[in-house]
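Assess this today:

___
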Amino acid sequence: MNRIGLIVVVAAFAGCAPLSLERGAEGVIAAFELNGRVAVRHGNEAASGRIIWRHGPSTDDLLITSPVGQGLAKITRRGGQFILVTADQKEYRAGDAESLTENVLGWRLPLAGLPDWIQGRAYAAGTAEVVHDQRSRLSELRQDDWRIEYQEYEGERPSKLRLTRQGLEIRLVVDEWLVPR
């Protein structure tokens, strides 16, 4: 896998920490925007960058840039269609993010659960093992072969996460939560 592929994957994970006035079932935030930093290690390769993620009930826009701001990749979801555009403007499409990232990057990115995981909760579609800290906040979550460690919180929102699965490690730091326009 090339370095751009790693950064694309990192950015997709970075679409995390939500802040929105609109909450859905069980307090889950339905829409959010965030700015943050990501670092990905896959096998012997590692990359880091910045991420801007806008998430809504039927849309996602993830922009991944280098640490100095150069655009590297963009992942877009509109309804059930996912599009990944690389830095060299190659465009790839699929009906789910997991198969798209597996075909383009060589491994599956769990975008189905990520919007909930970034909010410190398991997503409804799967079973999970959870561990809470002394303040009853989630400290570790295991779901769909992923281990999500909640390393820091800003108030009640997770602000630093570590996601690991079979030779892949993604670290995410949320620098800023924004209310969607």
